[in-house]
Structure formats: structure tokens, C-alpha cells
Inverse folding.
């Protein structure tokens, strides 16, 4: 245990964000890190509990008390060694994870949890700066060939793990660069893309073969995978966006959030977009439909593009500010969150249902939307149901509407149907407890079978799928 009284004597101190007036003018990361000496004191708040619920709450099972202790004592190398035992990419989770571990921290019962995510980020960045993170190519190769389709965090974790074991892995990616939603969903102000490039460079040096601009099912026939490789992992994400079927949906100026975010990420990465194709919020009244993280990323992007106003609308009521009775410790509590993007300027409206979009005088572009207030109740069998509040109709100015309503499931056409993969009742790829799909030798990882989720789950499933594939390849 780092310091037997640390949790009593030291208060939680969090990383700061750069000032709003500075950060809205660029797309660089907003979060700044605490000095390393303060970070080491923060690690001393860990109580090294007999039963480490943080470890239980973390999808990758991070050995949290162990590396807090090393961090507190300034043994950064040992902290890094422990951290990387359970997580291929702590630099992604250290920046982006909502940290279910902190929700499960025993301190959370009556105090502020340990700053686990930020401590993780400090350890991995120190490790990179100190040169502890070096390519580790396998000493021998097994002679087995594996294809991993999709290079989001699930595909990257699966490919990385199998490659390090010694299998010869080809990572196929439809986009021009590796990273999946890390690259083209998450904005640079949360994750600068140099962080992905740094990791991909290492993976290449370790002998991983990466084929970008290759959509399997189009550029490579799906069936050839089965003959050319000993095992295949499908990690193509859950990219089918949820739409809103209301009058006026066809008007110009209404986009899926991913079309908007992907284009801006490409522009930040140096791509040239023809002016007619550019989706810009500059000088516009922007309405983001959907109160989740994707919506929040749209808010931050719209403010940086110079939006005139930004409104985020959510159908549901706001989440509770304190842990409700039905989400007791040590469960992960879904609480009201104000992100760095919200701080930058945005009106947040709840319990509003969009009923239609209204066109401008030319009848072509969206000009406003019509919404009604709703109240939530429960049916006799406990299902949530909404009631429209009579006479509550209102209009909201909207020159640009971004649909951030979540994703329904994996894209079921193309590769999934070509391979004839069975789907589960939620429309995702069906797998058994060994991540095997209905087709011999084909496995699935990440959002493709879990549905839209979190980076930390994608990494964990990538690792678990790799372990299952390794057992399969070795005939165990
Ligand atoms: C805007 C946004 C912000 C988010 N922010 C966070 C966050 O802050 N924290 C967090 O934990 N989670 C966040 N998430 C969720 C997280 O990004 C996903 O859960 C995670 O990326 C899923 O990983 P994956 O590898 O399963 O799929 P993806 O990241 O979706 O990657 C799938 C990849 O497969 C490729 N592909 C698809 N079909 C083919 C094909 N036929 N051939 C070759 N390649 C193919 C795609 O191009 C893509 O690169 C966010 C999601 C979005 C949309």
C-alpha cells in the first residue's frame, strides 16, 4: 500500500483543461496533465483494498492497486510493466475512458475516487518519453496466417496480441488510415492522431502487416479470406446509424454525426475537401440531436468551426447528478456529465421530441425544427413510455442539424452477408463464449458483436478474441 493515510490526507486533484477562450480556436487536445510529483501523490490515495473493486469494474481487469503503488514510489517502469499486462493501448483509455473503475473505487462510497484514468495516462506517457515502450517482435513465427478485418481498437488489440504471440497477421482497413472511430469519430481535441500513429509505428516494427484502403468484401472477396488465412477476426464496428424518420428529414443541412465528425477529422489531418462537400457550422444555428458523447463531440466541433449558436437536444430527462438507488456502488453509475465541449458553449435541452424539420423559402435547406415536450412514465409492466405535453410545440432555429442518435448495429450487408454470418436478436454478429461466429474459423470482436460500446470494451474483446483464436490455431 502506497501510503496508509493517503486517502485521508490527500484530496483528489484532477487534470485541468486549457482555457476555453484559447482552446476553441484549435483542435489540439484540451486536457493538460498535472506535474508528475502531484500525480504521484494522487496515486497515494489508493487504499490497496482487500477486494479491489476497481479491478473488478475495469473491463480489461487492470491491476490498479499494484501500479498505483509503483507510481507513488516513483517506479514508473514497474508501473508501466504492470499496466501493459492487461491493456495494449493505455494511451487511448488514459485519454478517453469513462473510467468504470473509478465508479467502483471503494473511496467512491463516501469520498472522491482515485484519479485512476489520469494516473494511467501519466504512466503511459512517462513510459513513452522515457523509452520504455519499445517494439517487441516475436522471437519465432508459428506459420499460421490470420486476417483481422477492421482497425478500430478491437481489431488493433486483436492483431497486436496475435502478432506478438507469433502468428502472421494482416490487418485490413477500409479507410485510408488505421484507428476506426479513434481516428475518424473521436475529435482531435480529445485524442490527437499522433497518439494513434505512434502506436501503429510500433506495431509495424513488430512485423504486423497493415493494408489500408482495402474494404474486405469489395477490394478483397470475402470468400478468399477463408482459403488464404487459417483464422479470421471480424472487427468492423457497429456503423449503422440510427435515423429519424420525421417530415423534412430529406432537406439539405441534416447529416449523421459521423459524416460531420469524420470530415472534420480528415480536414485536421490535412485533407482537402471541395467547398461544395464541406459540412461547416460557421455562422450557423446548429442543433445536435442526441445527448450522448457523440453529440458532445459535435458540439465541440461546431464551436471550433464558428457556429452562431449550438443547441443539444435529448429526448430523455437529464441523468441524475448523484448515484441513484438502482445503480448502487460498486456498479458503474450513469450520471449527468458536463464535458469540455459543453463548457465551451451550448444550450442543453431535455425531454424534447423532434416532430419535423421546416425548409427555408426555397424549400431546399433546413431552417428550423419543430419539437414537443414529453413526459416520461411507466406502463403497468414497468416499461418506460412517453407522453407528449399538450400545447408544448415549439420551433428551434436550425441551419445545420446533426443526428447523433447512436448506432443500431453492425452494417449487415457486404462482408457480413457475404460470409453468411448469423446475427443475434439485436442485429449484431452472433458469437459464442469463445467469440466464434457461425462460420468455422471466423471470430468477431468489438462493437461488431457487442453493439456500440466503449474503447475499453473493444480492447478487452480484441484481447479475448485473440486468445480464443490462438487456442483454435493451436488445435486446443
Ligand atoms: C464520435 C464518437 C466518439 C466516441 N468517444 C468515445 C470515448 O470518448 N470513449 C470511449 O470509450 N468510447 C468512445 N466511443 C465509442 C468507441 O469509439 C467505439 O466503441 C470503439 O471505437 C469500437 O471499436 P471497434 O474496433 O469495435 O470498431 P470501430 O472503431 O468502429 O472500427 C471498425 C473499423 O472497421 C473498418 N471496416 C468496416 N468494414 C470494413 C471492411 N469490410 N473491410 C475493412 N475494414 C472495415 C472501419 O473502417 C473501421 O475502421 C465514441 C464513438 C463515437 C462514434
Amino acid at each position: 500500500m502506497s501510503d496508509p493515510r493517503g486517502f485521508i490526507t490527500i484530496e483528489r486533484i484532477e487534470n485541468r483543461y486549457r482555457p476555453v477562450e484559447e482552446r476553441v480556436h484549435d483542435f489540439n487536445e484540451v486536457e493538460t496533465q498535472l506535474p508528475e510529483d502531484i500525480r504521484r501523490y494522487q496515486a497515494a490515495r489508493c487504499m490497496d483494498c482487500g477486494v479491489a473493486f476497481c479491478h473488478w469494474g475495469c473491463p480489461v481487469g487492470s491491476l490498479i492497486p499494484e501500479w498505483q503503488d509503483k507510481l507513488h514510489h516513483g517506479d514508473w517502469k514497474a508501473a508501466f510493466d504492470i499496466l501493459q499486462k492487461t491493456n495494449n493501448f493505455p494511451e487511448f483509455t488514459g485519454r478517453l475512458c469513462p473510467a468504470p473503475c473509478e465508479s467502483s473505487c471503494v473511496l467512491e462510497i463516501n469520498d472522491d475516487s482515485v484519479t485512476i484514468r489520469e494516473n494511467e495516462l501519466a504512466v503511459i506517457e512517462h513510459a513513452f518519453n522515457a523509452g520504455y515502450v519499445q517494439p517487441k517482435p516475436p522471437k519465432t513465427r508459428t506459420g499460421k496466417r490470420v486476417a483481422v478485418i477492421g482497425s478500430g481498437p478491437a481489431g488493433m488489440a486483436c492483431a497486436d496480441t496475435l502478432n506478438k504471440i507469433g502468428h502472421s497477421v494482416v490487418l485490413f482497413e477500409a479507410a485510408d488510415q488505421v484507428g476506426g472511430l479513434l481516428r475518424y469519430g473521436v475529435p482531435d481535441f480529445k485524442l490527437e492522431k499522433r497518439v494513434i500513429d505512434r502506436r501503429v509505428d510500433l506495431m509495424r516494427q513488430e512485423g504486423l502487416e497493415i493494408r489500408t484502403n482495402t474494404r474486405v468484401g469489395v477490394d478483397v472477396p470475402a470468400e478468399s479470406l477463408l482459403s488464404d488465412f487459417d483464422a479470421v477476426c471480424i472487427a468492423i464496428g457497429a456503423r449503422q446509424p440510427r435515423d429519424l424518420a420525421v417530415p423534412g428529414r430529406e432537406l439539405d443541412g441534416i447529416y449523421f454525426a459521423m459524416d460531420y465528425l469524420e470530415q472534420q477529422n480528415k480536414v485536421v489531418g490535412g485533407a482537402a475537401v471541395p467547398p461544395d462537400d464541406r459540412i461547416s457550422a460557421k455562422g450557423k444555428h446548429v442543433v445536435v440531436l442526441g445527448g450522448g458523447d457523440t453529440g458532445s463531440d459535435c458540439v465541440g466541433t461546431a464551436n471550433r468551426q464558428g457556429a452562431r449558436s449550438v443547441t443539444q437536444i435529448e429526448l430523455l430527462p437529464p441523468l441524475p447528478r448523484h448515484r441513484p438507488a438502482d445503480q448502487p456502488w460498486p456498479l458503474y453509475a450513469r450520471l449527468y456529465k458536463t464535458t469540455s465541449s459543453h463548457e465551451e458553449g451550448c444550450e442543453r435541452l431535455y425531454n424534447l421530441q423532434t416532430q419535423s424539420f421546416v425548409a427555408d423559402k426555397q424549400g431546399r435547406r433546413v431552417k428550423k425544427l419543430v419539437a414537443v415536450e414529453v413526459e416520461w412514465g411507466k406502463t403497468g409492466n414497468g416499461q418506460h413510455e412517453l407522453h407528449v405535453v399538450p400545447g408544448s410545440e415549439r420551433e428551434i432555429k436550425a441551419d445545420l442539424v446533426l443526428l447523433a442518435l447512436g448506432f443500431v448495429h453492425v452494417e449487415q450487408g457486404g462482408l457480413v452477408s457475404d460470409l453468411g454470418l448469423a446475427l443475434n436478436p439485436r442485429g449484431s454478429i452472433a458469437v459464442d463464449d469463445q467469440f466464434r461466429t457461425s462460420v468455422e474459423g471466423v471470430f468477431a470482436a468489438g462493437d461488431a458483436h457487442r453493439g456500440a460500446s466503449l474503447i475499453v470494451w473493444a480492447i478487452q474483446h480484441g484481447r479475448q478474441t485473440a486468445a480464443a483464436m490462438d487456442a483454435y490455431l493451436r488445435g486446443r
In short: Residues 6-130 form a domain with the Fumarate Reductase Iron-sulfur Protein; Chain B, domain 2 fold (CATH 1.10.1060.10). The mean pLDDT is 96.
